[in-house]
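Lecture notes, continued. The same structure-token format from the folding unit now serves as the input rather than the output. Read the line below as a description of shape only.
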């Protein structure tokens, strides 16, 4: 009985399978399948991957702007890869070396030399000129992104270092904004008794501050134009002694102890930062009710070199391996010139260099922003500034300098021995690049 029921069930299932197959065959012959209709009605979707770094505010407005762009661009889907700066550079190195980088990338100026010294690391934007408003950039602005004759990237804004000071703290001590290195030491004599520092900054800014002093005091460059070391061991030793003096006399908050909260609270009177960080260190402090004053970089009287440098703040580039260069170029153009994106970004990355972007922002009060005023000062002093050498921002070099300097600062080594260690370590980084 059980055997008979089982055979009956098998026969029924076979009949169903045959019937379904027959229906599908008929539909395929008549070209009337649901699958066919769906495929015909849905446009092919192009997927792009886009990457950048920054704070939460940057993440939010960038995604909002790109979402608006996607709404205006049927068939395009943009995926995101983003994060804070810490660790981002190292992840980018992995992505680039594994040919897994995003189609459209926010890049640091130094990455042009690191990943595209021969111009092949990023797409040549000149080949995509029909999709990008290159006329919105001057020849000089475009030149910053050229490697080996190829336009690898376009600058978003230009950057230099500026100093911001808590004017309320200065007033409390009867001080004025410093203009020279001696002014910094004179201020420290007044503030040190209360455990306050004149300035504080992160390790990269510190490295660039020390380079500025070395170049002003010696009349020599720290790096050659090809990125090799121009400074010798003796020069590094002298710089270490000056570095220690900054800390010992209360001018500089030790870099490992620097906390932006201390700057915000007035325990540190001033800071050195890129113009593009103005919203953090100037506007952020002003929002607490504190008066903030901008100061120029310190100078040494009679110096033959200023020691201060200018660079593109950040840049947009296209992956040389992208499978969708046209779509990537149109997205890049939107990021640099589209009014919706420009209004969302404002001056968060600095004052845009694109004429199209500037025109939009001027209608919204650009001239009243602190970033614009700092940029105007940069332009006024541009003859004193040099274009930054990529190795000045090389994280491995900065870490090697800091590690060697700490040995001296914590009395584990002499200045001479630390200088020798730093010189050797930096040379190794450069030779292995």
């Amino acid at each position: 009985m059980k055997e008979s029921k089982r055979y009956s069930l098998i026969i029924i299932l076979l009949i169903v399978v045959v019937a379904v197959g027959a229906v599908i065959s008929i539909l395929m012959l008549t070209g009337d399948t649901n699958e066919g209709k769906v495929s015909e009605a849905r446009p092919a979707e192009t997927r792009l991957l886009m990457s950048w770094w920054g704070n939460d505010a940057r993440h939010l407005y960038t995604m909002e702007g790109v979402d608006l762009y996607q709404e205006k661009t049927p068939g395009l889907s943009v995926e995101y890869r983003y994060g804070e700066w810490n660790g981002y550079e190292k992840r980018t190195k992995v992505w680039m070396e594994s040919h897994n980088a995003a189609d459209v990338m926010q890049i640091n100026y130094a990455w042009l030399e690191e990943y595209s010294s021969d111009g092949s690391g990023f797409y040549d934007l000149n080949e995509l000129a029909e999709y990008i408003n290159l006329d919105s950039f001057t020849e000089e602005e475009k030149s910053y992104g050229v490697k080996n004759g190829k336009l690898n990237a376009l600058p978003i804004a230009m950057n230099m270092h500026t100093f911001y000071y808590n004017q309320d703290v200065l007033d409390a001590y009867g001080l004025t904004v410093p203009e020279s290195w001696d002014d910094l030491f004179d201020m420290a004599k007044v503030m040190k008794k209360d455990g306050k520092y004149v300035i504080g900054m992160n390790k990269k800014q510190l490295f660039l501050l020390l380079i500025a002093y070395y170049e002003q005091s010696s009349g020599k460059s720290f790096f050659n134009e090809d990125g090799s070391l121009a400074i010798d061991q003796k020069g590094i030793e002298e710089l270490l002694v000056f570095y220690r003096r900054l800390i010992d006399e209360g001018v500089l908050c030790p870099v490992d102890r620097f906390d932006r909260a201390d700057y915000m609270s007035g325990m540190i009177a001033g800071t050195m930062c890129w113009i593009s960080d103005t919203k953090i260190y100037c506007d952020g402090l002003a929002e607490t009710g504190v008066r903030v004053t901008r100061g120029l970089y310190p100078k040494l009287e009679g110096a033959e070199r200023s020691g201060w440098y200018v660079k593109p703040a950040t840049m947009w580039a296209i992956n040389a391996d992208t499978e969708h260069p046209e779509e990537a170029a149109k997205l890049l153009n939107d990021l640099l010139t589209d009014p919706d994106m420009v209004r969302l970004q404002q001056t968060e990355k600095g004052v845009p260099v694109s004429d199209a972007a500037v025109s939009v922002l001027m209608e919204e009060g650009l001239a009243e922003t602190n970033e614009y005023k700092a940029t105007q000062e940069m332009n006024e002093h541009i003859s004193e500034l040099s274009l930054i050498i990529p190795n000045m921002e090389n994280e491995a070099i900065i870490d090697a300098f800091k590690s060697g300097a700490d040995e001296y600062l914590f009395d584990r080594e002499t200045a001479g021995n630390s200088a020798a260690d730093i010189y050797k370590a930096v040379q190794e980084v450069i030779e292995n690049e």
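Point for the exam: The longest strand covers residues 158-166.
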